[in-house]
């Protein structure tokens, strides 16, 4: 909104009127200005005494980021605004914004993020005898009467038709 001024002359007198007018462009500009100023202010990394102290403990004394933060909070060594949360400190380490690297964190290197490739489920549902346990005569294909049956399923909506294929192994 902005104020619009208008003047009117009547009988040698000047009358001044003020009227508030809505402007969507001005409102949008003001929104963007306020949006930039909103939100929590980030904790500064440069010039932060906690960061240098935490780097020293994590590199030279092999402490974890969580224990460094807990020690700083418990002993009240720094003002609360300088101490980041654990997630923020790990993010700084991952982004290489501080001197500590992942190689300095012993437990982080031990974590395995992926499942092993040869992983088999213990409670897997058994739908019949495995094809690997069939008799040797079937593999040689010397006799008739051994069939391979397979199904081809369309989209997995549960209501689609299925194509059944039956092939004799001979």
UniProtKB/TrEMBL annotation:
<dbReference type="GO" id="GO:0004803">
    <property type="term" value="F:transposase activity"/>
</dbReference>
<protein>
    <submittedName>
        <fullName>IS30 family transposase</fullName>
    </submittedName>
</protein>
<dbReference type="InterPro" id="IPR053392">
    <property type="entry name" value="Transposase_IS30-like"/>
</dbReference>
<dbReference type="GO" id="GO:0005829">
    <property type="term" value="C:cytosol"/>
</dbReference>
<dbReference type="InterPro" id="IPR051917">
    <property type="entry name" value="Transposase-Integrase"/>
</dbReference>
<dbReference type="GO" id="GO:0032196">
    <property type="term" value="P:transposition"/>
</dbReference>
């Amino acid at each position: 909104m902005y104020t619009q001024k208008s003047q009117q002359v009547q009988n040698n007198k000047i009358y001044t009127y003020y009227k508030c007018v809505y402007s969507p462009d001005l409102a949008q500009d003001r929104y963007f200005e306020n949006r930039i100023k909103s939100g929590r202010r980030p904790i500064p990394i440069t010039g932060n005494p906690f960061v240098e102290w935490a780097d020293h403990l994590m590199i030279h004394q092999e402490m974890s980021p969580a224990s460094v933060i807990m020690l700083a909070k418990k002993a009240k060594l720094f003002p609360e605004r300088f101490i980041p949360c654990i997630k923020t400190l790990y993010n700084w380490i991952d982004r290489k914004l501080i001197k500590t690297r992942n190689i300095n964190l012993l437990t982080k290197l031990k974590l395995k993020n992926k499942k092993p490739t040869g992983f088999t489920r213990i409670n897997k549902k058994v739908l019949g005898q495995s094809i690997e346990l069939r008799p040797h005569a079937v593999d040689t294909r010397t006799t008739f009467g051994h069939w391979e049956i397979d199904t081809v399923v369309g989209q997995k909506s549960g209501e689609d038709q299925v194509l059944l294929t039956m092939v004799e192994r001979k």
